[in-house]
Design a protein that fits this description.
Helix 5 packs parallel to helix 7, helix 6 runs antiparallel to helix 7 and helix 7 packs antiparallel against helix 8. The chain has 9 helices and 6 strands. The protein has 2 domains: about 210 residues, Up-down Bundle (Multidrug efflux transporter AcrB transmembrane fold), CATH 1.20.1640.10; about 80 residues, Alpha-Beta Plaits. A hairpin with a 6-residue loop joins strand 5 and strand 6. Strands 2-3-1-4 form a 4-stranded antiparallel β-sheet. By secondary structure, it is an alpha+beta fold.
Length: about 325
Amino acid sequence: MNGLSVKIDLVKWRWLWFGISLAILIPGMIGIIICCLKYHAPLRPGIDFTGGSILQYQFEKTVDLEPVRQVLNDCGFAGSQVQAAEIDHKQVVIMRTKAIENENSKQKLDSQLMAKLGPFKMLSVDKVSATIGPELLMSGIVSLLITFAMMIIYISYRFKLDYAICAIIALFHDALALCGIFALLGLINGTEVDSLFISAILTVIGFSVHDTIVVFDRIRENTKYVGSKKIDLPSGKEYRLSFADVANQSVNQTLARSIYTSLTVVITLLSLFCLGGVTTRDFVLAMLIGIISGTYSSIFNASCLLVYWRELKTGRKAKFA
């Protein structure tokens, strides 16, 4: 420990890290507020939450999506989401609309699509009941609350209460960053969230807290060095290690491991996002954003929050070498 020199003085620049987080969170929170006013929900809800129909049609020739949207608007399905996918090297048009209540509406839509874009093959027509939405939403909220409560209990038992609170704040950062970005995507790009989005949030939280615990465990192991003497090589002056010094050195000891572990996951997710199917792209994007945010908060936010907490508790400001 004494032979290790701090490579990155994270605590010294903590307000920079906090500022970067705020630069991401504030626009996201504004997007969430706008979504609440526009959609009566913090994010643009998908069919899983609102109910509706999912139609997959395969036309004989490749078609543009804009005429499909125009037909949907003419048939009373304005605001429908239209995407293109590929099955067996053939284009598949996926339409997510409000619920098609009767067969006449379906026949009118089919006839106009055929008249404007040519013959097509109907691959699937699925209907999702709107009653599923509240159940999924409530289950997701309960899952998140249980997850946070169990994490606070475990980390408080394994470490201390201040460790647990700082870890939960970092988790809120990750969840809020992910929701904020998707709120903006919903307003700008029409991106909707479904039940997979809740799964992505829970997965990101699990990954992030695992990374944070690794950092906190190293800090806890190294707290025995707080108060020990050390010589500053450039000046030759002797000083005693503070909690901030120990936190800096602990994060640097785990820095490479955290980045390499996250990088392997990010590479996999990037491959899935670029080469995977369109139906899972939003889920993979949510995972990708969450993993990057979780890695950032574990390295730059959680430890700095813990040091700041200790400074407020002891009334002493960290002295940087």
